[in-house]
Specification:
Layout: E1 2-3, E2 9-10, E3 12-16, E4 22-24, E5 29-31, H1 33-41, E6 46-50, H2 58-71, H3 79-87, H4 97-110, H5 112-123, H6 129-154, H7 169-197
Parallel strand pairs: 3-6
Antiparallel strand pairs: 1-2, 3-4, 4-5
Helix pairs in contact: 1-2, 6-7
Length: 200
Amino acid sequence: MTQNESGETAPITIKKYANRRLYNTATSSYVTLDHLCQMVKEGTEFVVYDAKTGEDITRSVLTQIIVEEEAKGQNMLPIGFLRQLISLYGDSMQWMVPKYLDYSMQTFARNQEQMRNYFQEAMSGVFPFNAFEEMGKQNMAMFERALKMFAPFGGAQQGPQPDAKPAGRDSDKALEELQRRLDELQRQMEAMSRSGSGKH
């Protein structure tokens, strides 16, 4: 990575050409999806641009990496999760999913050390089934609370209402209430994360 004018470390630029080849501008060499996968694991930030149009295609390339890894038999994404994720495309709650998933993965990353300790205990013959069961129950309870919290906003209307009119201040109040509930959900997730990390 290079530094920009503000002194911050700038992501490496990867260019994708029409022949689907990927070019790392930092190393002046062609790379593969496997190379990019390794860069992600090493924490190396990069962005991918279409060499012809200049469009940022980082999201599609990262998605392609996931597809490739799944095809290799890694199978990290459960079928039930994939079905639920697909069903949310076009749903009124779609806008909430990226923030929820991003925060969930950040919480998981913070708890990785705790989970490694669990597996180390497992190798010594003491497998903490109860700890994993409790974490699973907490995750399910958290997700159910999230659905209940937002049901008044997303569950009542499944599609556009032909007679709907702008609500003005009422709409603003609804958005404020929705943001408040998002903040409340985030606080609950943080509290559960701290609670889980304090148990050994």
